[in-house]
Amino acid sequence: QELGPEFTATLDLGANVGLFNNRLNIDATIYNSISTDQIVLVAVPPTTGYQGKYANIGRMTNKGIELTVGGTPVKTKNFAWNISGNFSRNRNKVTYIAPGVTSFSFNGTSFSGLIPTVAVGEPFGIIKGSKFVTNAQGQRLVDSTTGLYANYVTATVLDPNRDWIAGLTNNFTYKNCSLSVLLDYKRGGQ
Predict the structure, then answer these.
(1) 168: closest CA among 83, 67, 74?
(2) Which of 40, 104, 170, 187 is 20 to 30 Å from the Cα of 116, by its Cα?
(3) pLDDT tens by residue, 73-111
(4) Cα(168)–Cα(74) distance, rounded to whole angstroms?
(5) What's the rounded Cα separation, in Å, for the pair 48 and 61?
(6) β pairing state of 126-132 and 115-119
(7) How far apart are CA 146 and CA 113, in angstroms?
(8) Hey, what's the torsion of the CAs at 46, 47, 53, 57, to 10 degrees?
(9) Element (H, E) at 49
(10) Taking a C-beta distance cutoff of 8 angstroms, is the pair 103, 57 a contact?
């Protein structure tokens, strides 16, 4: 079977606004894309003598928003302060794999019973397997009888994808010297 190209159809809606002689800039984008015929290494029966073959399969959606706000709150002859903040959120979902196929494991590191998986109705890149027993704050629990960490919870779907990410950059310039301070924040993901 011959491989064909991957296809992605995207609808973007965006705006870029500059205010106060471009001392305040706002850039926003909302997008919705559908990707089909992705080239994926799929497993084949061991009797073929191969570990897998590349095939065009699947359909996946991506929906999200990107927002950047920046400005120059202070600007004098010798000093400038530029600040920029960004935010992005992406939601993807596998909507189709192949006729009669609802999930499959894909190449990647499989360890401790954790298996990288593609599954219909789930985000791309989930991991099926087990995870540590934790409390509401995410701290691992200890078995009081043994003093060791509590056993794993099995048959779990872990989603490593972030809920959202954001960043804040401050640039300070005095004459020919510059200082940049960057803060990043990532929310979600297991």
Answers:
(1) 83
(2) 187
(3) 999 999 999 999 999 999 999 998 888 888 877 665 555
(4) 17
(5) 33
(6) antiparallel
(7) 23
(8) -90
(9) none
(10) no
- Cβ pair 6, 56 in contact under 8 A: yes
Structural tokens at position 156: 């779990």
How sure is the predictor about 171, in pLDDT bands with cuts at 50, 70 and 90?
Answer: very high
Residue owning tokens 């998986």: 117
Q: How far apart are CA 10 and CA 144, in angstroms?
A: 53
CB-based burial, 14-35: b 16+ in 10 Å, e otherwise: eeeeeeeeeeebebeeeeebeb
HSE, CB side, 13 Å, CA atoms: give it for residue 18.
4
Task: Characterize the bridge pairing of strands 79-96 and 152-158.
Answer: unpaired
90, two tokens: 């992406």
Instruction: Locate 160 and state its tokens.
Output: 């490593």
The Cα-based distances of 15 to 65, 70, 117 in angstroms read 12, 14, 36
Beta-bridged to residue 49, according to DSSP, are none
Greatest Cα pair distance, the chain, in angstroms, is: 74
Handedness of CA 129, 133, 134, 135 (dihedral sign): positive
